[in-house]
Amino acid sequence: MAMPKQPIRAVLTDIEGTTSSISFVKDVLFPFARARLAGFVAEHADEPAVAEALDAARALAGDATLDRDATVALLIAWIDEDRKATPLKALQGMIWEDGYRSGQLVGDIYPDAAEQLARWRNEGLVLYVYSSGSVLAQKLIFGHTAAGDLTPLFSGYFDTTVGLKTDHASYAAIAEVIGLPPQAILFLSDNIRELDAAAEIGMATIALDRGEVVMPPGQPHPVAKTFDAIDAPAGRLKASAS
Ligand SMILES: CSCCC(=O)C(=O)COP(=O)(O)O
Ligand SMILES: [Mg+2]
């Protein structure tokens, strides 16, 4: 006998390429952090969170003897190759904090994402974020948008300290923390490998195609161009969009 489909009770969303443009992350956020990394490290290297991130970067590189300059050079190389390394993401978040608080950075959230997230929350869904950006960076981008502070919409945030976004175990751990079966969670992302990992443990999935990258042909997830096309409580595209 076929199991009845679980109603969706939570939405888990990616940021870059999903709620926010890839160009904002690549052309605004990454260069902002890149230009300030050496100065930030020189000024804050003795603070525990910074020292911990620098040590973690050295450990990831497999060379605990790297001096400060060599570690900064390594981190800059990681920015240039868009490496989703947890210590780099921690430092980027700390550097962006100054930019958001001073008004130099404004969180770029697609209006359709902001509107639909608010609507889904009003409809009783609980909302969570899962991004390679650190939890601090996630709170900053949603906390400093042109439409104001969107952080009250969210019940929680997950970053790569829970595991890689392409690893199905990360989604199992997130479902456990949320306290819902994976089948009751809808995951939204522009990255097919992330969606595959979430689907592997039974989450409902929808791919976002914001027109900045080409979707691989034949990939198995329903595709939405905007959040308007998504029927989140049903965990699928609206009939008018499919
Ligand atoms: C939190 S904004 C910066 C996002 C970021 O650093 C990044 O690498 C984007 O990864 P995502 O998992 O949101 O696609
Ligand atoms: Mg993404």
UniProtKB/TrEMBL annotation:
Enzyme Commission designation: 3.1.3.77
Cofactor, free-text remark: Binds 1 Mg(2+) ion per subunit.
Catalyzed reactions: 5-methylsulfanyl-2,3-dioxopentyl phosphate + H2O = 1,2-dihydroxy-5-(methylsulfanyl)pent-1-en-3-one + phosphate
GO biological process: L-methionine salvage from methylthioadenosine
CDD domains per record: HAD_EP
GO molecular function: 2,3-diketo-5-methylthiopentyl-1-phosphate enolase activity; 2-hydroxy-3-keto-5-methylthiopentenyl-1-phosphate phosphatase activity; acireductone synthase activity; magnesium ion binding
Sorted UniProt keywords: Amino-acid biosynthesis, Hydrolase, Magnesium, Metal-binding, Methionine biosynthesis
One protein family per Pfam: Hydrolase
Cofactor annotation: Mg(2+)
Pathway: Amino-acid biosynthesis; L-methionine biosynthesis via salvage pathway; L-methionine from S-methyl-5-thio-alpha-D-ribose 1-phosphate: step 3/6; Amino-acid biosynthesis; L-methionine biosynthesis via salvage pathway; L-methionine from S-methyl-5-thio-alpha-D-ribose 1-phosphate: step 4/6
InterPro entries for this protein: Enolase-ppase_E1 (IPR023943), HAD-like_sf (IPR036412), HAD_sf (IPR023214)
Keyword Ion transport attached: no
Task performed by this protein: Bifunctional enzyme that catalyzes the enolization of 2,3-diketo-5-methylthiopentyl-1-phosphate (DK-MTP-1-P) into the intermediate 2-hydroxy-3-keto-5-methylthiopentenyl-1-phosphate (HK-MTPenyl-1-P), which is then dephosphorylated to form the acireductone 1,2-dihydroxy-3-keto-5-methylthiopentene (DHK-MTPene).
Assembly and interaction partners: Monomer.
Family of this protein: Belongs to the HAD-like hydrolase superfamily. MasA/MtnC family.
Protein name as it appears in the record: Enolase-phosphatase E1
Source species: Kaistia hirudinis
Highest classification ranks of the organism: Bacteria, Pseudomonadati, Pseudomonadota, Alphaproteobacteria, Hyphomicrobiales
